[in-house]
Fold these 2 entries.
Entry 1:
Amino acid sequence: MIVDDLYVTYRVNLERKNSLKNALVRKARKEKVRYREVNALKGVSFEVPAGKCTGFIGANGAGKSTLMRAVAGILPPTKGQIEVRGKVSTLLALGVGFNSALTGRENVMIGGLAAGLSRAEVNEKFEEIADFADLGDFIDMPMRTYSSGMFSRLAFSVAVFMEPDILIIDEALSAGDAQFKQRAGKKMEELMNSAGTMLLVSHALSTIQELSDEVIWLHKGRLIKRGDPAEVCDAYLEFLKVGDEAIVMEDF
Ligand SMILES: Nc1ncnc2c1ncn2[C@@H]1O[C@H](COP(=O)(O)OP(=O)(O)OP(=O)(O)O)[C@@H](O)[C@H]1O
């Protein structure tokens, strides 16, 4: 997977009420809609070798989730390129893509079809997915009735059993109870051993160091450091102690 000079800019509408009536009034008065631009990623480049796990760290608002959404194809790049070979499966914090009005079973089917599997292939995997998520009868209830733990267990289960070529995991390990975390960790190890490529986002540096072959540190939309997990995590910890100025001086 290659990410080349990636920029993502969000446009945030600053109007308080974004109604049709307001839009017409503004048009009649020849007023412009006011936007504020947020440059969430500013020229990020890196490659992830197949079969390796890359961890992403950085302070709040660094652009980690934005990067994952872009790689998953949920968010179009404003500029730059993302080259992905194979099937990408995402496990974003909130189980993006699930429709909470539908049952767990229905969402598994939709998720599977979206990942490029046939209906028959999803049916074949269904039992395994449902068993691993351990939802009991809730699998046939609308997902809005799920606890957040149940929600993330199903999201995790769908993502890993789709046998993706690239698996994106964004803070997934913080969800669910201790027992599930253990099972999830085991399953991820299996996945990595079967040579899947992984992108992992977490604020838990111990998890990142344990699982990653390489770590990328993002700060305010830029790639600050990339390389050996222990080295990059140490540099980041040092930065957290020293504060913002040090890295601004050093890198820009
Ligand atoms: N939907 C959105 N609309 C506008 N701005 C956004 C949106 N999502 C994120 N941003 C902004 O983009 C920047 C990067 O956010 P992002 O969520 O990617 O960071 P992050 O590293 O994942 O942070 P955290 O560790 O807090 O999850 C932030 O300044 C954030 O305010």
Entry 2:
Amino acid sequence: MSAPVKGGERRRKIPGTNGHTAGKDPAEGRVSRVSGATTDSPGRPGLTPPPDAGPPVRHPAAPAPGEPLGAHYDLCFGCGGGQPHGLHVRSYAGEGVTVTAEFTVQPAHQGAPGLAHGGILVSALDETLGSVNWLLQAIAVTGRLETDFVRPVPVGTTLHLRAECTAVAGRKIYSSAVGRIGSPDGPVAVRADAVFIRVKVEHFTKNGRPDEVKVAMTDPDARKVARAFEVNP
Ligand SMILES: CCCCCCCCCCCC(=O)SCCNC(=O)CCNC(=O)[C@H](O)C(C)(C)COP(=O)(O)OP(=O)(O)OC[C@H]1O[C@@H](n2cnc3c(N)ncnc32)[C@H](O)[C@@H]1OP(=O)(O)O
């Protein structure tokens, strides 16, 4: 069965499978858009890197593997410590251009009774995927993000997320993520592929609240400022 995805597309069924590749856990077989094994919408920029895409290069100043990445903005819904309604996703630099993260589903995150709302899970994936950009030291915003919901995620679960940048082409940064229940080796609950687009700081000052961006840029926590704003074209 092909899974419905954002934007009304359906994933192409892989011949000889039930829509997933072989494996004990059907969730293991999700075919990444980045692999090119699925189709992108005609006429819409998709999630398959173009032929001129290259591998991502970890920035020399990126935090060492295992280092917490902290929040890029205190009021960020995904990672901000000062955001009472937020997810409080905690992320850590991984090897290469990868990030791991943890997110614990709270009662405020329910959709069905006792289960995480799908949009909340997408937010946790988006946050984790976005954190990868810091290892490239790129400011980027989500252009497109497609998610497979593989298993329900009960309230109280800690979701262990892992995201990896797979390719870069010009301003486009291609990444994939997976979220597992209870431990880094737990059953897969969600998967996502995304493309982020690099932007300049003006993206936020022109479209958001310039005064708050200025305040964020003068935060005494230099690391936080670097995470949010450092650009190395
Ligand atoms: C205190 C503050 C802290 C600052 C903290 C900084 C980190 C913030 C992180 C927060 C993350 C978020 O929540 S982001 C929030 C959700 N996302 C957004 O709000 C983004 C809204 N969209 C936009 O603003 C815009 O559409 C952009 C910036 C994505 C693209 O517009 P643009 O700059 O004019 O670029 P454009 O020429 O159209 O496209 C450039 C290239 O990207 C491709 N491209 C463009 N859109 C897409 C797309 N949806 N899917 C695939 N590919 C796309 C194009 O085909 C093109 O490829 P080619 O021709 O080059 O091949």
